[in-house]
Structure formats: C-alpha cells, structure tokens
Protein: DUF4229 domain-containing protein
Amino acid sequence: MSESPAEQRDAPGHLARDLTLYILARFVLIAVVAGILVLVDVPLLVALAVGTVVGLPLGLLLFRRLNGRVTAGLAARNEHRARQRAQLRAELRGETVPEEAEDETSEVPAEDREQEK
Structure:
C-alpha cells in the first residue's frame, strides 16, 4: 500500500514543500554570490545586485531537478483544476458527466448525485 518515491515526490501535497525549497535555495545562492563579492570588498548593494543577476540564472542550472518537480506539480495542479472546471461547466449546462471524468476525490459518490437529480 505504500507509494513509490516517485509517486510520493509527484503528489500534489508536496508542491508547497518543493516550491518553498526551490525559492529558499535560490535566495541562498544569491546570498552566497553576494557574500563572496562582499569579501572581495565590493559594496553590499552592488554585491546584492550582481548576486541577483548571476544567482537567478545560475539557480536554474544548479537546481534543475527541483525546478522540474515544481513545474510538474504546478502542471498537475493546473490539470486537476481544469478537469474540475470542465465538470462544473458540464453540470451547470445540465449535461451528465461520464463516470471516467469524475474526480476520484469527489465528496459525493456518483450514486448519490444520480438520486439528487
């Protein structure tokens, strides 16, 4: 019954964690680049500007795997929301929604929805 590590990583509940880690990692990279420049006697404001310009693209390269997980999580979330939106629009038009299109996490079972109509 346990999920594989790939399934756990791609679960929608991990999107917030992955996004937070990715943002923090990029900020740390900017701070490291700026810190190195400050040690070389570059003014702090200039070091932060250069750290941002250098750190952000460098973060895309260094944290590619984490970026991929965040992108996949956002895509899955978007797909889920699009399916829910399409289902809601179909229900508002009065169309019956096929059972395959119903979301597995629906709160009301399909039998109960049919009885309500």
Notes: The first helix runs from residue 5 to 9. The mean pLDDT is 80.
